[in-house]
Amino acid sequence: MKILKYLLYTATALTILAAGSFYGLYRWASADLPNFTEITDYTPALVTTVYDKQGGVLGYFYHEKRFLVRLDEMNKWLPMAFLAAEDAAFYDHEGVDLMAIFRAFLINLKSGRVKQGGSTITQQIVKQLLLTNVKSYERKLKEAILAYRLENYLTKEEILTIYLNEIFLGSNSYGVEAAARTYFGKHALDLTLAECAMLAGLPQAPSRYSPYANFDLAKDRQRYVLGQMHEQGWITEAERQEALEQEIVLKRMPDPSWGTGAYYLEEVRRWLIDKYGKNQVYERGLSVYTACDPKHQAAAEAALREGLENSAKRRGWPGPLGNVDEDPQLLQRLEAQEVVPDDIAAGDWLMAMVTDVSKSKAQIKVGPLTGTIPVSSMSWCRKPNLRQRASWARKISDARKVVGKGDVVWVSVKERPEQGEKDWIFDLELEPEVQGALVSIVPETGEVPALVGGYDYMRSEYNRATQARRQPGSAFKPLVYSVALDNGMTPATLVKDTAIVFENEDGSVWRPENYAHRFYGWLSLRTALVKSKNLVTIRVAHKVGIQKIIERAKALGLEADFPQDLSVALGSASVTPINLCSAYTVFPRGGSWVEPRLVLEVQDVWGEQIYSSEPVTHEVISPQTAYQICYLMQEVVQQGTGRRARVLGRPLAGKTGTTNDERDAWFMGYSPYLLTGVYVGFDEPRSMGAGEAGSSTALPIWIDYRKEIEEDYPLQDFEQPDGIVISRASFEEGSRDGMRMVSYFLPFKEGTQPVPTPTTNPGSTAPGAQGVDDDLLKQGF
Questions:
Q1: Beta carbons within 10 angstroms of residue 420's beta carbon
Q2: Same structural domain, 90 and 221
Q3: How many domains does the chain have?
Q4: How far apart are CA 526 and CA 109, in angstroms?
Q5: Fewer Cβ within 10 Å of end Cβ, the chain: N or C?
Q6: What is its EC number (predicted)?
Q7: Which of 252, 283, 307 is where one domain is finished?
């Protein structure tokens, strides 16, 4: 009896001691535990998604590629597959699976080190979000305590949702939705049982079990997961067998961030970071809705690419990319090029190696393909004389003068072989060094449906549409003439187009010239703008004063360092294309310009609107002045330097711009519903060669773009405001040796129109009303 009492006392004491020890261990482990309730406010790093105007995805921004999804947005097999692989007893335990821990303890004891953890899904969440990944018994104890607490705070479904969105599954994919897109090109809801099981096999070692890296190992893990699901009774043997036999097709869901609209997306990214900061943009799962129109954007990119390629070809053939005998890396680039014949279409570009060359053609190899480049496609390889416009060397008639064996060149597919034929027909291509930009703005709203900042975003991320400051040349002249019309001149005012010399403060001499290096005598403002005469523009600027011109430019939102001399009238102040486009909206808008809008709305991860943009406008000039300039720029399109645009057959207004030595070429053109600006030039400014002017280089790009989108707009003319009178003005233009009588219908502000005299024909005007500016005439201007 005494022995029994002794044993009872001993057992009680040991129990109390064990309980005390366990309590002490619990208090010790709990002393510095993080607040587990933070998990209930689950805010993982999520992908910010940028949408175009039609609701399509323009691109993504993220640090961790993760898309938040609920359980009901997943295939029903997906949670089951992960539970089978990671925690089959998930719905039976309270955060800690003691049997799993005991098994792991035995394994670790046998190996002499911490090799297996036996963690439940709840413990994995705790470790991932609150603790470190260091393997130790202290961390395991903390993990177990927090897991138990969490199980009593959240539902099983909430815990499982967090786990499936948080877990890393390789290939920069966090959570099951990102993984489904990365491995199978699907959403989590559209996965098959076989695909669910393969994803569920990844958490143990995402890199090792990745189906992209080792498909056989991934298949083994899939087999294990399906076996576990069957053992738990969650799938039938038939379902397991069918899943095992299903062919797995690996496919990445395309990431539009590097496709059409990459320059547009980059500008949106810069705007978002400036407004919200990097962490908010890359981690908070914003939804950003833009004004980018996919049709406009695709047309703009295609037009700019082709225009830059044509400009490069007009400068002749600079030679191949290199020769494989001299540069082994070129051969590596060729071998790395993915060439799938069935996916290749006419017009696609490929890198090719010349295997043989004769007078009539070059034989080439493109991956598994063989083909020829006929000498006829090399006609552009003639060497132009960059100093004399349209002066070319004789026509290329021998392919051996262009390429040699082993040369690596760019080609485009001209013809696919017919059934039974082997060789493909290619055209020789040239990747241009010259760059450019295109920007479109809707004058009414300021929305930007298209923005392209260069030839290829993958080659250069520098956005010339918003970052490159270039001289607009004659494209600045409409601003000068708007000041003239507000200071007593009319479209019929006559100004001398003759030589003029200015002495600068430093003693140097400035002799401005017209583009064609000719003088035309007396010209009206109408003709001077239509024909883009520099000397008339300078005299006009001298008359009204350069300060008024600079003030007008600043009032129109132009951000530039304006020179305090008359060169400012010829566009010597550097501006960005988007900046000039926004200033130009003052004309189709009837006197006010509108700020460009790329981002229309931003929502947080819960769909709550946190930003919405509205048009921001600035009144600068009168509707009458705006219409007069608009009318004159329509004349530029009809009879002047922009007449190529007549091919569109619509009411259009525009102005070309070309700087000294053809360093920069511009065309700014608009209709009432859309304004588009195009710029072309080298990043390190230098001559593009004789003839590379706004009308021949920038305008064709503008036309190609507008051809693709004009059909979406009804025919619309510019609206004439009150206070404008369209009147015939007749007067003489030219030099004394060649004066000729001209007659134009021109827009006048009411009260300034020509007055017919009784001594002349009704269609003529009296000398005093001809528009000759007596002040300019007296001063020799």
A1: 5
A2: yes
A3: 3
A4: 95
A5: N
A6: 2.4.99.28, 3.4.16.4
A7: 252
Shared domain for 422 and 499, answered yes or no, is no
List the domain range (segments joined by +) for residue 380: 317-429
- Residue from 495, 320, 498, 478 nearest 407 by CA: 320
* Encoded tokens for 536: 């008339």
pLDDT of residue 372: 93
683 in a structural domain:
no
Give the DSSP letter of residue 769: G
Residue 178 counted as domain residue: yes
* Residue 770 reports pLDDT greater than 50: no
Compute CA 213 distance to the chain's CA centroid, rounded to the nearest angstrom: 31
My answer on whether 130 and 243 are in the same domain is yes
Report the CATH number at residue 130.
Answer: 1.10.3810.10
Distance CA 132, CA 335 (A): 44
Whether 493 and 549 map to the same domain: the answer is: yes
**Cα torsion angle, 246, 249, 255, 260, sign:** negative
In contact, 477 and 495? CB cutoff 8 Å: no
Indicate if 157 belongs to the active site.
no
Same domain for 416 and 488, yes or no, is no
Distance of CA 482 to the CA centre of its chain: 34
Residue that is last in its domain, among 252, 273, 303: 252
Task: Let me know how long the chain is.
Answer: 781
3-state secondary structure of 123: helix
- The residue from 86, 283, 662, 692 that is catalytic is 86
- Give me 582's structure tokens: 């926004």
Helix axes 623-639, 477-485, angle to 10 degrees: 130
CATH number of the CATH domain containing 738: 3.40.710.10
* Residue 17 structure tokens: 């001691």
Q: Which residues of 110-121 are buried (b: 16+ CB within 10 A; e: fewer)?
A: eeeebeebbbbb
pLDDT digits (tens, 9 = 90+) for 524-576: 999 999 999 999 999 999 999 999 999 999 999 999 999 988 999 999 999 99
Asked if the model's pLDDT at residue 699 lies above 70, the reply is yes
Instruction: Provide the edge-to-edge strand list for the sheet that holds 653-658.
Output: 450-452, 435-441, 675-681, 664-670, 653-658
pLDDT at 388 over 60: no
322-323 vs 617-619, strand pairing mode = unpaired
- What H or E segment, with its residue span, contains residue 373? strand 369-374
- State how beta strands 349-357 and 361-366 pair: antiparallel
- CA 183, 187, 190, 196 dihedral sign is positive
Q: Does the annotation count 474 as an active-site position?
A: yes
State the Cα–Cα distance between residues 228 and 763, nearest whole angstrom.
97
pLDDT value at position 130? 52
546 SS3 class: helix
224 vs 756 pLDDT, higher one: 224
CB–CB of 94/121 below 8 Å?
no
Cα distances (angstroms) measured from residue 352 to each of 47, 333, 337, 342, 709: 38, 10, 10, 18, 34
Q: Which of 216, 169, 217, 166 is nearest to 191 (CA)?
A: 169
Please name the residues in contact with 270: beta carbons below 8 A apart, sequence gap of 6 or more: none
Per-residue pLDDT band at 330 (split at 50, 70, 90): confident
Residues 490 and 398 grouped into a single domain: no
Do 196 and 337 lie in a common domain?
A: no
**676 within domain boundaries:** no
Burial of 526 (0-12, 13-18, 19+ CB in 10 A): buried
**Does residue 139 lie in a domain region?**
yes
Distance CA 465, CA 460 (A): 13
Task: Provide the CATH number for the domain around residue 372.
Answer: 2.40.50.140
Residue 188: which of 169, 213, 205 has the closest Cα? 169
User: Same structural domain for residues 245 and 341?
Assistant: no
DSSP 651-668: --EEEEEE-GGG-EEEEE
Q: What is the DSSP string of 81-114?
A: HHHHHH-TTTTTSSS--HHHHHHHHHHHHHHTS-
